[in-house]
Amino acid sequence: MSVAGKKxxxxxxxxxxxxxxxxxxxxTERIIVARVGLxxxxxxxxxxxxxxxxxxxxxxxxxxxxxxxxxYFNTQFFNAMSNKEIExxxxxxxxHCVFDHLGRRGDRDPLIYNIAADYIVxxxxxxxxxxxxxxxxxxxxxxxxxxxxxxxxxxxxYEIAKQNGQDFLDQLGEMLDEHLDxxxxxxxxxxxxxxxxxxxxxxxxxxxKYSKEEAKQIKDEIKEGMLQAAQAAGAGNTPGEVQRMIxxxxxxxxxxxxxxxxxxxxxxxxDFTFMKPSRKGWHTSAILPGQNFDEQIDCVVGxxxxxxxxxQQAADFLGEIQGIMDQFRDYNxxxxxxxxxxxxxxxxxADNGERLEEYELMGGGxxxxxxxxxYMKNQGIEPKKFIMFTDGYPFGSWGDAxxxxxxxxxxxNHDKNLEAPFGVTTHYELA
Length: 431
Hints:
This protein is α/β, with parallel strands linked by helices. The chain folds into two domains: 17-250, no CATH class; 256-428, 3-Layer(aba) Sandwich (Rossmann fold). Helices cover 39% and strands 16% of the residues. Helix 2 (43-49) packs antiparallel against helix 9, helix 6 (110-127) crosses helix 7 (150-164) and helix 7 packs across helix 8. The longest helix has 25 residues, at 17-41. It starts with 16 loop residues before the first helix and ends with a strand. Residues 1-5, 184-190 and 269-295 have low confidence and may be disordered.
């Protein structure tokens, strides 16, 4: 990803290959100088930058990009910037890697999500005075989004764009980003199309492609590099947002499935007695001692089906509901989907639990958590436990803190520090 905005410059179409080679040599040296500047003034970014190979990419890249291993640059774009502006761009690219913005994009609209991610990154860099904001482009930055996450910014922009159309996005700026596929889109080995120019500078002739295995390895390398860079930078020299990510990476975490089980079991009293075996999962007619619940498990599960939820996330949500059913022999679980309103309410019990696989997921609009509480109040539904599977970014309210016990299961690999303002929050982490 790269700095984005309206163009305030144009490359010289008449530059000769020889002139470009000489300019590339000078720009490469200036990037090295900028890295040293970051090391001296902002050591976290400087240490992260020194891990990246410098690679010209004039044939396919209009500005800058990074894949976790290489910093790609357009020679004329970088030549038109000051060293301090180059520092900003390098730090910008590093933060996109650190925050795993491409990996977090999922099925969201790429244009809108990239705008949202740039707001997050640029706000941080401007706030912490890292480099100087480039004058070549009108960078996305707005203090309105201070403290937000990219997913929340996306939801905000998405809703505004739905109301105002493409004109609204056009007013924000012209996209200059080149998105490198963080998830891997190649079945084979990496293909960077590397060569060297007349001065020995490394040049990328084509956009790199990585296999899924390589993409995962790169993500692991970024995490390792982030930990090492933060350690080298020392306390106080790492942005607070990055420090929180590192804390989450290094601190032991309780298994989120255990939390779900504890939360559900907290709503019932149980003892052991002789009871008729459940029809599901039993292959003997023997009467064996099992759990007899004085109160039937009674919970409501809301599945976030807003536009930010991908198909895989939705499938995972259903899989976890099935997991809840499999833990208990007697249950009454009410399931529905929601975006800005509630859809397809359905009751499942031990008698019809197998029909969950036929359940139709519905939605695809904005995100309004409060729609669940409004629906429960209107329908007179008062669950002992409300469980919400979500990616964790409501457009407005999180819901009614006083209505019922609530467990938020946030499905993501991004902000592990995101906490709901009430109830219990746990994070469903992807492998």
